[in-house]
Hints:
alpha+beta
Amino acid sequence: MIIKTAKGWSFRTRFLFFQLSSRGETDVWAVYNKKTTDLLGECRWHAPRRQYCFYPRCYFHWGEVVLNANCLTDIIDLLAALKRDRRAGQSGRMKHEAHQTAA
């Protein structure tokens, strides 16, 4: 479930932590590793594709970003929710009170 914290809107899944990092014309969600708190990338609007996409962070001091199927499914679920809300006329703004995520 998306919750409002002192730092803004966020939610957690089994492996990832999502934080709403920017609110402009479209939302930008930072994606973090829940265990290490490393920034893995961002989910943001990609105008040429006219959809939200995941932009992975290229590398870390210890290596590259590696995501398993569970992490990718969590990111896909967020992208699908952003797409659904945008098509429903929310301009990329998720219905924060009612949004549920798979745990």
